[in-house]
Each structure stands twice: as C-alpha cells, then as structure tokens.
Amino acid sequence: MKIKALIAFLAITTSVMAQDRKIDVESKVVTNHEVTIKGKRVPYSATVGTQPVWDNNGDPIATLFYTYYERTDVKDKDSRPLVISFNGGPGSASVWMHLAYTGPRILKIDDEGYPIQPYGVKDNPNSILDVADIVFVNPVNTGYSRITDPKANRSTFFGVRQDIAYLSEWVNTFVTRANRWSSPKYLIGESYGTTRVGGMAYELQNNQWMYLNGVILVSPTDMGIDRSGPVEAANRLPYFAATAWYHKQLPSDLQSKDLLEVLDEVESYAINKFIPVLAKGAWATESEKNEAIKMFARYSGLDEEIIRQHNLDVPYNFFWKDLLRHEGHTVGRLDSRYKGIDRMDAGMGPDFNAELTSWLHSFTPAINQYFMNELGYKTDIKYNMFGPVNPWDRSGDNSAESLRKAMAMNPYLKVMTQSGYYDGATTYFNAKYNMWQTDPSGKLKDRMSFKGYRSGHMMYLRAEDLAQSNEDIREFIKNSIPPAGTPAKY
C-alpha cells in the first residue's frame, strides 16, 4: 500500500508541476542597459514580450513576439524616430538583423562573419539606437510567435496579402501602446521582408492611416516586378562577375581592377549589348552569339563551351557548382564568399548552402542565450529560426507598385536599398533593376537611393560593412526628416 500511495503522490505532483508548452498571449519583461555607440554612451530599455493578433470579433487568435529598444535619455519622443524591423523567409525570425545589424547587441563572430567559440553576444558600437528606437517583430510561427486559437485559419497569416494586412494591424496597436504616433516612422525589411514592408508602406497609409518617413529594403526580392526572359538571364551576369572577381577567376586585366570598376563595365555590357543578343534568340547571327559567349566567359569565370551548351542562359545553381569545381569547392548562394564541399565534384548544383549552415551555427545559440540570460525572457517554446508557414499564398505580390503608390501619396516618404555584391539569392543588380522599374515615370527617383557592399545577403556580418551599412541607415534617417514646419506637398 505504501508503494501504491507513493506512486499516486508522484503522479499528482508531476501533473501539478507540468506546464502546457504555449506562449502567453500577452507578456512583457523590461530591463535597462547601456551601450557605447560611436564613442558616446547610450542608455536604453529593452522590452521583450508578446502582443496579440485579434480576429474581426476582437478575440485573440495569435500572438507576436517582439523586442523593443528605446533610448531612455531622450525626452522628446515626438521627434524621436521609430524603426520597425522585419526579416524575411517567409518563415524567418527577426533574429538576423536583431542580433547582427541594427540592434545594441551583436553576435560574437570574426570580422568576415564566420562562427567562433565561445558563442555569445557583445556590444554593437555601430547600432542605430543612438538616432532611432527599434522594434524587432516576429511574424506568426517565427521566433516565439504562435497561433493561439486552434480554430484559427492558417490562411489568415500565410500569404503575401494576408501577411501585410495582419502585420499592419499589429503595428498600429504597437505604435498606439508605445505612444509613438507622433514619431517619424520607418520600416526596414530584409529579403522577403522587403516584399513585406513594400506592401505594408501602402497598407499602413491606406488602411491604418499611418504615414512613414522611410522604407529601407535590405537585399530585396523581385517585389512583383517581372523580369522573365532575356532580362532575367542578363541580370545574372554582374553578380557572376562579382563572385568570380572575389574568387580570382577572372582574366588578369579584370582581376587587377577594383571590384566596382569591373561591375560598372559588366553592367554596361549586360544592359546595352547582352540583352539585345538574348532577345534575338535563334535569330542572332553566329558572330553575335560567339561574341556574347566570349564576353560571358570573360565576365563570369566559366568556360565558353559550358556557356554555349546553356544557350547563354546559365542558371544560378549551376554557377554555384561550377565556378570552383576545378578546386573541389562550391560557392554559397546567399553569400558567395563562402565555400562548400560536396560529396562529388560532378553535378548540376551544390549539396547544401555553405553560408546558411555557418550562420545558423552562429545565431542559434546566441539568440537563445540572449533572451534568457540578458533580457530575462524565459519560455519552453522553441525559438523558430525558420518556422512552418507553408503553404504560402504567393498571389497578389505587387509590393513594388504598392510602394510606388505609397510614395506618390506621401511626399515625405523616401526609400533606400542596401545590397551585397556577393548575394546570389537576391542579387544587387536585380535590386538596382527594382529601383529603376518601381517608378518608370522617374518622378520619384530623387527619393530613391542604392547602397552596395562587399559582402553577401547579410552584408552586415562583415565588420567593415556593418559599420558602413549602419552609417548609411543613420544618414538616411537624418536626411528623411524634413525641417520643422515643412509641408508634405508637391
């Protein structure tokens, strides 16, 4: 009987101690810190927690996890900029820009972005927190964000238009709760996050009546701009040239030049000569084809015969596999500075993304330690670096046009694009093409700018580019706030 009683007691105790593995719909932990940015002390508070997503009846159906950094020695919040930050995927947490770019704490990595041990974080002397407060937002199923109502329809969240709509509503609530309606406001998005913030700029203005001063597009997607056919094929060449230059695979006369000098030459060729040959297709003359093959090989580091076999349309995947095949390496997709090793040198594409495994190696332990040990947020929920968001409804992706309309409606609104030259997923030249095509009239182009960096998709992982890209954001913010009393009119 004593044994039975003990078993019963243990069962009851275990039941009482057990906790459901779920995130609180509403939560908040506030801590205070300071960081030295550009040689000056900046005190700040860090608010980490969850805020609901409501349905049309006002019932919570999901909760979004966020981290909000607010400088605490600033009294005039009305003129203090607020930056609302999103990463991409879709299905990616906000960890990347949060813990490696604009936030006050960044990864311990080497100067080129590679993992080192022991893992952890350190102060970010380049953070934009000196000039703007920042909130990092995790969409549903990323980070600690989750659907909380089991009856909620997943299609409410997982699609281009749905994502833009519910996140804009969430931002409205956040800005209201934080009492930041008077602040100059900015959206920053990386990768798919550029599709997100491009659409949100219009959604916030049109349906939330919230007007912005700026949108920052980091490593942008195609944002709904068509570039199929000859344009798509030709637009790859400048990226191929950048990567080949980095790995010293170009002819000596090109290799001896600076990267930007080489890219100017390749861009001019791609636009003015390569596209016309591709457009002619089978009707291009033999001499035109041969010259195009010769120039493609010169600028890409690939063999002429391979280019001929591809009819001048070499896919990215093959390039990543073939450029360093003779050395027994592949190159990375998101950052082609990174090398990989495949099971065999033969094949049409790499076995894995060399850069992504490196990044996950660095980020995952750091973000989990950071929330628990420094910001005091503890939960049994897994932090989803990448979360389940499929199937994703990709219909209605017209975010470049949405951004154009937002700019047309708001004379204050400016846009800056940031891209790494070695990014093969969202190439810098396609980012330029986005900028050229977003407003074909050219009436808005004086409010658009482009910044390029000698790194990849997450250009900020390289120490030199971390400093420069943050400085570019800092200047963009300062230059997009009009003098007091300036009317928003044409």
Automatic annotation (TrEMBL):
What domain of life does the UniProt record list for this protein's source? Bacteria
Q: Does the keyword RNA-binding apply?
A: no
Annotated signal sequence is: 1-18
What GO biological process terms are annotated to this protein in UniProt? proteolysis
Keywords recorded for this protein, A-Z: Carboxypeptidase, Glycoprotein, Hydrolase, Protease, Signal
Q: Name one GO molecular function term.
A: serine-type carboxypeptidase activity
The entry's protein name is Carboxypeptidase
The upper taxonomy is: Bacteria, Pseudomonadati, Bacteroidota, Cytophagia, Cytophagales
